[in-house]
Amino acid sequence: MNVIIITACPSGVATTFLAARGLERAAKQRGWNVTVEMHSQLEPVVPPGPTAIEAADLVVVAASAPVDLTRFVGKRVHQAPISEALPDPDAFLKQAELSATTLTTAAVASHTEAAPVPLARPSTEGGKKIVAVTACPTGVAHTFMAAEALIRAGQGLGHSLRVETRGSVGAQDPLTAEEIQDAEVVILAVDIEVDSSRFAGKRVWRTSTGTALKKSEQTIRDALEKAQVMAGAPGRPAAEGAGGKAAGRGGPYQHLLTGVSFMLPMVVAGGLLIALSFVFGIDAFKQEGSLAAALMRIGGGAAFKLMVPLLAGYIAYSIADRPGIAPGMIGGYLASELGAGFLGGIAAGFIAGYAARGLSRYVKLPASVESLKPILIIPLAASLVTGLVMIYVVGAPMAAIMSAVTGFLTNMNSGNAILLGVLLGAMMCFDLGGPINKAAYTFGVGLLSAGAGSYGPMAAIMAAGMVPPIGMGLASLLARNKFSDPEREAGKASLVLGLCFISEGAIPFMAKDPLRVIPVSMVGGALTGALSMYFGVQLMAPHGGLFVLLIPNAVNHVLLYLLSISAGSLAVGIGYALIKTGRAELPGAVEPSRDKRWGMEAGSDRAAA
Description:
The chain is α/β, with parallel strands linked by helices. The chain has 21 helices and 11 strands.
């Protein structure tokens, strides 16, 4: 029998991949001829051609996100939430074969006119209605993983839960005013500052994406029990500290991550443009009027010059809201001009942010001129304070520190390089997206602004970040008898995510077996970081995984870089395959619900990522 399988989940990261591979394998075991259409962010969608559609005897749609079905009118089609395909793909296909019905034009029209499926959980009688927002600095992995973990935990606890994800492409499935109004509590699982003024008057609980991901059920319980009312009127910023610690603004670490999250796209774009200029030769950009020179001017002359002002501006924005942006960017630009680099930019952001917030809070003016504070008085005074402090106090010491760091990186011997690589590699693999991982990554990204001689740490950091998920994937292949079926499927997804430099692919394994996974991952990451630094590998772009290697000269020693990644990944894969014991399910598995009001299953998406 000829069958077409279509999978789609809201985030398009892991569940889509897992369901597609599981259904494809089960269909082949039944002797069916299979064509798979996978709606994923990991690779382009490849729809079946007219010949395959004409020959299809059955179309199986396992989707919790909109899919165009008009092309299958007249075919036998079975539709169900993607969650129902994950526990037992073979049983799902058996049910599909039995219950498939001929798709009509009217059915397609009804499906198309229906409201988009939100990233949410089925409503449960007697449960609470909860809304949440998730956001991480890169907006790639933790944002969606935390959302899906909360959704899965909400179902397990009997609550209906709607999540707004604020990822790298902006807000997805935004919460409506009605949903916020009806919600019992609001969960802000964010590592960066987000606009929370719309939640004023609601009970709000603030946590991190890492906590929401690893302790999702506890997060929901804490929110229901401990959340406090956020002060202020909807649409207006609440007073800081109102509603208790849970509802207030984050601390310095969160302010830093907010700045990094806004700076990162600029760094990635600039780094890739610089790498593209090297396609024509390492020194081709020196020829005036050439395409290589234009690419270098855009990437190095514009994007990289803006990265420090962006970093400083959005650190200040996280602290003081919009009034902090102007003084922060001015301070960041001065940091660049003074040679203080990203360290000076960080200092400028905090100086500008706290200066602007202090002026906003403590300077009281007559009502007739109060409206001038955010657009005139605060930007002017905070910019003056920040600029003077940067020029006369902070700039010179920070410039000296940056010069010393750059000189050390440029002239360090092999022993120092190996030690730095060991440290950065181990940090990247300790908490997989947590504070230590982010500290190492921020260090590498910041050094890119220092120019030549500072690209080595970024290479070691990205290589080490790929090691844990690749290693867990290899382990699930090398010691299949020690891994349950869901773990083996998670291993496949982890392998793909690792190649994309999404370290979080290994989190399910770390959450279930931290005492083994964390040490072996740190050993592999340290080995990869050490080898990368020893070989003198330099990387121009801070993201992209192995796909960056497709750009000529983006990495100076491609084969040695691949050797470094392979060595660490094999160390993790073989090491964990040897020390792992038993066979257990991944944490967080729950029975999916069939209720379609609050959306179809999306929760197990990151159980494997």
